[in-house]
Every structure is written in C-alpha cells, then in structure tokens.
Amino acid sequence: MHILRWAAATAVLALALSGCAEPRTSQSGKGKDDGGASAAQAPHPAYAPAALLGRVPGMRTQVVKDETHHVYAVWPQLPGATELNGAISKASRAAIATYTSDYGTPATGNGPHPELNRSWRLVASSGEALGLITEEYIFAGASGAESWRTWWYDLGTHKLRPNAALVKDRKALRDAVRKALHDQGTAVMAEEFKNALRTDSIPMMAFTRDGRLFVAFQEGQVAAYAEGRVSVALPKEQTDGLLSTFGNTAREAALTPSTPPLGDSTSGPQDPVPSAPPAQNVDCTVKKCVALTYDDGPGAPTRGLLDTFARQKAVATFFVLGQQVNTYPQTLKAIVAGGHEIGVHTWDHKDLTSPGMSASLVGDEISRTLDAIKQAGVPKPDLMRPPYGATNSTVLQQARRQGLSQILWDVDTNDWKDRNTSIVSQRAVSQARSGSIILMHDIHLTSANAATHVIKGLRARGFTLVTVSQLLGQTNPGQSYSRR
Ligand code: NI
Q1: How far is the CA of 244 from the centre of ligand 1 (A)?
Q2: Angle between the N-to-C axes of helices 170-183 and 190-198, in degrees from 0 to 180, rounded to the nearest 10
Q3: How far is the CA of 28 from the centre of ligand 1 (A)?
C-alpha cells in the first residue's frame, strides 16, 4: 500500500510536470486556511497547551489506524475521567464506523483517496474544569468536510457537562448568537437555527483568548454549506452576563490553564532513560547497515520499546506526530536520551497530497510538529516522513523550506495490518538488504514486542543497526530517500 501510494503520487507528479494534469495540491480546500478575508477575520477558540496533560501520570491516547482506508483517529483517555473517556471513545468509534460503512471499499487507481482524520485539542484545563475539542476531517473524493465538538468536564463532580451548561439562560444565549450572526452578515436558516439551540445540539462552545464566548456550528447546520463552519464570538460584556457558575470556572480554565489533578500523584511522569548507548561511528560504506524506523508515536508502547533497544544496545529512528509529542513529551526526551534519532511525521497524520491540503496547510503540519518538539526540549530533527508515504512536489518543497529531508522506506512490515509479533519480525528480518530502511509503528504493542527478535535476527544476518542519518550520511533538505 505504501509503495503503491508513492508510485501513484510520483505518477501524478510526473503528469503535472509534463503539463497533462494539474498538481493535486494546487487548489486549497474551501475556506480551510489562507483563503478569503472572512476566514482571516473569523475568531477561533483559545487552545491550551496539550503538554499540560503530558504531565499527568497515566495519561494516554487511543489510536485507531487503517492505512487501507486512510483512517487515522486519536483521542485522549484521562486517568480517572471515566465518563469523559467513555463518551469520547464512543463518539470516535461511531464516527469511524460511519466512515468505514460509507467508504468501506479501498480506493484503487491513482485518484484522490477518501480519508478520515480525527484529532483533538485541549481548550481548558484546571483543577476544576477540563475542555477538549475533537475535530473530524473527512475527504470524500471531491471535497473535504470538517466537523468539531467541544467536551466540558466538571472535575468537582467528575461529570460531563453539555455545552449549554456554560450559560445560565439558553434563551438569552439564543438571542445573543442570533444577533451576532446577523451582525456579521451570516444568512441563517431560521428553523435549523432554532432546532440547534432547542435540542441542545450546539457542537462547540469555547472561549477566545480575550475571554469571549465562542459558539460554532457544523457545516450546513444553521446556514448553507457554502458558509463553511459558522461561528461567532460574543462581545465581552454579553459573555459576562451569560455565563453560569460552571461557565465562569470553564473560562478561567481556558484563560489560565494549568495541569489537572488527575492520575496517581504518588507516581510522577517517568524520567528520561538516562543511559545513552555508546556513540556509534559506523561506516555504512563498509558495513552492512540497516535502519529500523517507527512511525506515529510516541505512544503507550514506546517506553517498553526503548527499554528493549537499551538492553540490546541498538538504535532506531522515530517519526513522531506533533499531537502525540504534546501528550508524551517525556517519552520523546527518552527517545533522544537513548541515542535514537527523531523525525517529523506531521501534526495529526493527514494525507499531505489530498486536494484539501494547500501548500500552507502542508507547511503548518510540519511547523506545528517542530514547535511541539522544541517545546519538549529536544533538538530540531533533520528528517521528515509523510503519512501513508504520500508525497508530491509541494510536500518536498515545504520539507526543504523547513530544512528537512524526506525519508520513505524500502521494507514495509505491514505491522499495522498484521498485529502478530512473529509475522512482523519475520518480515523485517527476511526482507532487509544492506542499506534498507524498515517501516514499523511504535503505537502497536505487537511491533514493540517484536523488537528483540528483529534486532537479534538482523544481527544474525550480519547487519549493523543504525539511525537513518548514520545510514545515509549527509542528506539534502527537500530530497527524498527510501534506502541507502
Ligand atoms: Ni504513519
């Protein structure tokens, strides 16, 4: 699948260069980014650093991934927040099931591929309240559709609160939102608007950086689809009058976020693995070198994997997702402390060649991840790997701008499909050649458990395990490599 995608992307690129077809990323998705002035003026909710949750002992994420259908979904699971965890899991799994039933047939050929991408962000966090946003992006072959939802959790009662619990008077909220929409010139469909507020189905309520109440609807929910995601930020004094007691608590958690008192406070977050293996001065022009690479982490199984590598005195390369780095900053530090190399695998695992992805969105996927890595206190990487191995000239150009070389692979273990330790290790060991880059994923426990066999098996075949940069030597930003 990966190799096919790469071949397809290359074919499209070749056509584009010969003038027979348009590059697939030449047009941006409607209203998704730097398009119109209205998008630039639109308010947006204040995001709290997800790294706050990275300090919560036992904090983890749940990931569902299906490369055949281009499904990537991640959501948080907070220690002790049972009701919140259950509700987000249920909604995420339902969305995946709907997408899979609608687009269940794997796409063939070179056309754009349907894609489901679900991610999350923290909007508020304190000892009293937590606010999260889940975001969904579906690309259905012609255009992209986005939806979002906020989740408010009362840490005093450990209960999920509906969005409308942020205000004390729903009628006053309805009137204020209607007026704000009118003032900004959004043509609202009256009946749909009434329903959205009556049935408690406002998908998003959060706060702007300056403390205004932000209210947003799904595409097509209260206005024509052409309007995109309709949102308003109510004026400050109106917001002040509307908020309930919980609403005020939530706003404080949004404006001055702090780490929530969750998890087992007696066991702090794990420290970085202290012992780095001896620096390897390996000459891969002489020795038979291979590079093991792990994508999509850091995740829950990454720690165990690092322990295995430390015991075997071996190194690997980890292509990390910015979103996961925020949740697992200590694990990222442990990767680097263990002598391994890291690279960028984008923020949230979107297919960068999707027609919905403009050049600036591709650039954001990379730069947001670099920011998260920097915030974790780890040196800037030199490498990147696009999700699904899907790449084109725009991706390479953005990689070059940010000083990154593109790393693909020549051995695919398909470990996401076959969650079987012996199959995975057998593939990695038997298909390796001198100079190979081997693809695996450290979000799967089976792949982490395969590591001892993989390392020993490769060494038995006379290979030396190195990082990608040790394997390739000096690489050029914006250039692509799939083996030595
Ligand atoms: Ni990936």
Answers
A1: 42
A2: 150
A3: 23
In order along its 484 residues, the chain shows pLDDT tens digits of 343 333 333 333 333 333 332 222 223 333 333 333 344 456 789 999 888 888 888 899 999 998 888 899 999 999 999 999 999 999 999 999 999 988 876 656 566 788 999 999 999 999 999 999 999 999 887 777 888 999 999 999 999 999 999 999 999 999 999 999 999 999 999 999 999 888 778 999 999 999 999 999 998 999 998 888 899 999 999 999 999 999 999 999 999 999 999 987 655 555 555 555 555 688 999 999 999 999 999 998 999 999 999 999 999 999 999 999 999 999 999 999 999 999 999 999 999 998 888 999 999 999 999 999 999 999 999 999 999 999 999 999 999 999 999 999 999 999 988 888 999 999 999 999 999 999 999 999 899 999 999 999 999 999 999 999 999 999 999 999 999 9
Distance 142 CA to ligand 1 centre (A): 23
Q: Cα of 348 to ligand 1 centre, how many Å?
A: 9
Q: Ligand 1 centroid to 124 CA: how many Å?
A: 28
Question: How far is 8 from 363, CA to CA, in rounded Å?
Answer: 22
Report the separation in Å between the CA atom of 351 and the middle of ligand 1, taken as the mean of its atom positions: 10
* Residue 409 CA, ligand 1 centroid: distance in Å: 12
Could you tell me the CA-to-CA distances from 118 to 136, 140, 179, 321, 429 in Å, in that order? Answer: 4, 14, 32, 13, 33
Give this prediction's pTM. 0.84
Gap from CA of 103 to ligand 1 centroid (Å): 20
* Cα separation, 11 vs 298, whole angstroms: 32
| Ligand 1: centre distance to CA 139 (Å) | 18
Verify cis geometry, omega within 30 degrees of 0, for the bond prior to 379.
no
Question: What are the residues whose beta carbons fall under 8 Å from the beta carbon of 51, sequence distance 6 or more?
Answer: 326, 327, 329, 372, 375, 376
Quote the ligand 1 centre to 425 CA distance (angstroms): 19
